[in-house]
Each structure stands twice: as structure tokens, then as C-alpha cells.
Amino acid sequence: MQQQEINRIQIEDNDDVVRVRARVREAAARAGFGHVDQVRLVTAASELARNIRLYAERGLVEILPVRKGNRRGLHIKFEDSGPGIPDIKLAMTDGYTTSRGLGKGLPGSRRLVDDFEIESVLGEGTIVKITKWL
Amino acid sequence: MSAFKVPILKVGDVLLVSIQSDIDDRAVVELQQRVLEQIERTSARAVLIDISLLEMVDSFTGRMLSDIASMASIMDAETVVVGIQPAVAITLVELGLELKGVSTALDVDDGLRILRERMKDKQRRRAAGADDWHATAGN
């Protein structure tokens, strides 16, 4: 397995969400994703990075090229120490929102990737991990 | 970075907005306000938003486009969004965004043609409506 570099971006400002989009685009292109998949990854990352800003204000995004057998892909982790999500099932429902948004962030970004994991502990924070395979 | 402002040009009755690069959420909100202020200040009757250079439209930007269209409509101005890239259209649908109430066109020329037709239609309907009113009032 070849050495893969992790790309870390601290989320502290709205500009950092723009930075996440640019870095995800670069990483997706480098990993060999076609144009539509690049846009899917960038859009999902934008939704999830914005959630960090909305609910926790700050957090960390890590972009990591991954390999499983012959499959290559891109893995992105969104981590914050915010208030956590009281009801994950409800939060994953289309149209449900606590931020006066559209309620498309979590369920929508899940539809744009292959693997989607979410863990959240009230008062401790939330981790969302997404992976898309080539 | 967020000091960058999306230019708004007035050509005839139409406000032309071309989003040339990826902008942050604050700039998106600011753009929405400026478009509405410009409608009021310049009495523009239509807004054309060119997003052909936008490589991504997420739920926030998508909502801004819908909101501009509905707010402009309340201010009696038509809105059309032009130049949505195929990959952006695919992603919007998968994300679950319908861009409610937003008219779209392929490019700026197409968008301008649609806007001019709509403005003409509106004037015609108003003229006809005024005649009806006079006819009824005369009786």
C-alpha cells in the first residue's frame, strides 16, 4: 500500500467551507474521479462542512485517499465538539431541520456518496464519515 | 476573500448577475440583498443570474436562487437562472433540491429572450386588464 497523505482543514470561518470544497475537488481529481463524481463529493463536503459551522462553529475536516483491495476511493471525515445530535434518525430525514435550512444537508449528502457513517454523543460532538469509491 | 463582490450590471430593464467563482455563504446572502436593493433602486423588471462558472450548487446556494426568484417576483420582477452545468443539475436532483419557482435557460442569450417575452406578455396582459376595467366601469 502506497503512502497516502491526509489533508486536514480546520473549520473556523465561512471561508474554510470554501477551502474544503477546493481541497476536496483537488483530492477527488487526483484520485481519478470523473467530473460528475467530483461535483458529488464537493457538494456533500460542502453540506457537511457547513453543518460544522451551523451547529458547532468549529471543527476539523480530513480528506484521505483510501484503497480496499483493488478499489480506490476518497474518504472524508467531519469532526466537531459541538452539542451533538439528539435524534440521528430524525436528523437523517429529508426536510427535517433545526437551523431553518432546507433539511437536505445530511440526507442529501448521504445520497451523493457510497458509504455514510454518523456518530454523535450529546454534549460531546459529532463525527460524519463519507467514502466514495472509484 | 469575502471582500470580493459579485458584480451586478443593468442592461436595459434587466439586472445581469454573473457568479464568477465559488463564494462563501456570507457573500451569497449579501448578493441576495444587493440584487433586491438594485431592483428597487433601478426599477429593473427582470433578473438574469448566470451560474455557468459555478462548479457546485449546494442546498444553501440553491435556496438563495429560489429565494431571489420569489422575492424578485414579489417586487414585480422576473428571474431566470442560466448556465447550470450538467453535473450541477445531476447533483441538485440527487441532493433533493427542486429549485422551486426558478425558471432556467441554457445560456445568457436564451435567458434574455425568455425574459423579454415574459415582460412583453405581462405588459400585454396589463393593457388588456385595463381595457376590461374601463369596459366594465363604462357600464
Give a structural overview.
The complex is a heterodimer of chains A (134) and B (139). Chain A has 134 residues and is an alpha+beta fold. Chain A has helices at 14-31, 35-56, 88-91, 105-112, and strands at residues 7-11, 59-68, 71-80, 115-121, 125-133. Chain A is built from four helices and five strands, in the order βααββααββ. Chain A has a five-stranded antiparallel β-sheet with strand order 1-2-3-5-4, with helices on one face. Chain A is globular, with a radius of gyration of 14 Å. Chain B has 139 residues and is of the alpha/beta class. Chain B has four helices and five strands. In chain B, strands 1-2-3-4-5 form a five-stranded mixed β-sheet, sandwiched between helices. In chain B, helix 1 (25-42) runs parallel beside helix 2. The radius of gyration of chain B is 17 Å and the shape is globular. The relative contact order of chain B is 0.14.
Features:
heterodimer, A: about 130 residues, alpha+beta, 4 helices, globular, B: about 140 residues, alpha/beta, 5-stranded mixed β-sheet, about 15% strand
How do you describe this structure in short?
The complex is a heterodimer of chains A (134) and B (139). Chain A is of the alpha+beta class and 134 residues long. Helices cover 39% and strands 31% of the residues of chain A.
| Biggest pleated-sheet summary of chain B | 5 strands, mixed
Unreliable residue stretches of chain B: none
Helix count from the secondary structure assignment of chain B: 4
User: Main sheet of chain A?
Assistant: 5 strands, antiparallel
Task: Going across the biggest sheet of chain A, name each strand in turn.
Answer: 1-2-3-5-4
Question: What value does the average pLDDT of chain A take?
Answer: 93
| Protein structure class of chain A | alpha+beta
Largest interface: A-B, 28 and 25 residues
